[in-house]
Amino acid sequence: MIYRLQKKFILISALSILIVITLIFCLMTLLNVSSMNRTLDTLADSVSRGGGKFPDSFAGPIPDQERPGGEPGFDFITPETPFSTRHFTVWFDKNGEIVRMNTESIFAITDELATEYATEAVADRDDRGWISNYRYKVFFTENGKAAVFIDGSTNRAALFQSMMISCFVLLGCALLVLLLIVLLSKRVVKPVAESYEKQKQFVTDINHELKTPLTLILANLDIAETELGQNEWLDDIRSEGRRMTELVNQLVALSRMDEDSQSLEAVCLPISEIVSDIVSEFRISVEARGKSLSADIAPSITCMGDETLIRRLISVLMDNALKYCDAGGEISVVLRRKRNIVFTVENTYLDIESMELDRLFDRFYRADKARTYAGGYGIGLSIAKAIVQKHRGEITAYKKGAAHIGFKVVFKNEI
Known about the structure:
By secondary structure, the chain is an alpha+beta fold. It has eight helices and twelve strands.
């Protein structure tokens, strides 16, 4: 159990780190793409204001030339920007026909390609966007529309390289943190492991300390009954002694099943026959209490497992259904092979709305708040869950309608 807890802790930590790293990377990508678009949009605005070229004020030879004051987005523009920025512009008349174009500041674009890109940009509803590696802006002139294109291939390449570096750095940090978590996970679960070991030792001590006196009490009861004769007080003592013996045995069995080191002796089992046998054994008790039992068991189903544990699992679920089934109610058992082997036990239970399904498999939890003797000890379903986990299966409790409760066990084809 401690090993499973350690694995679960590492898995949860790894998923948490992955989610955080992914969110950080997506946020960085979003911010960088937005910043790149704003940069290229600022350049496109400058070219559109200059009538298809950068304003003359940016082309001066003096490096510390004064920039237009108070205009946002010009902080990154220098006198060298007009010479390093590749761009072209296409003008349309009011009828949508191209009247002229300026491709002097770019080498990779022919007049035909400029016509194609400009036509596509003007037809788009958005005034700004991307076509191939070019960021465009559509603006209005006195004679019609115009489209200016800024080459963003260098910006995109730089962004891609930057994001790849960021990705590797983030992944490296994540792997480093995960490695530390793996190394420190034993220390994290150490208090739980110590508590678990103390619990196992306590159960072992209980087994040794109680079994011997209980055995002596029951043996002395037989002697006393021989001398004094049978009476109700001796019967009560024997009944309670047997209940305590059964409780101790269940605690020991549950403690042993929790041990990860305990191997499972799995063989091929005729589970259809096993379920049929146990249902037949319970049928007499069910009918004696005025309840009905129906079974729908598909024939010839086999599974890999430990026969003793599988029989105990089915008996626990059947016994639980018998104890909690309403007077005059019904119990139904179904065994089917779908993708996996599915075994269900359902029974009528009018007080189902008060049932806490998520707690039914907790140790010592009892749906019967009065904790009457007929209700059991609250350990049976914990044992059932432990058996299913040993077989790498799944067990769930569910409500069916307004007055039925069911337990569903799914066995994988292989263990």
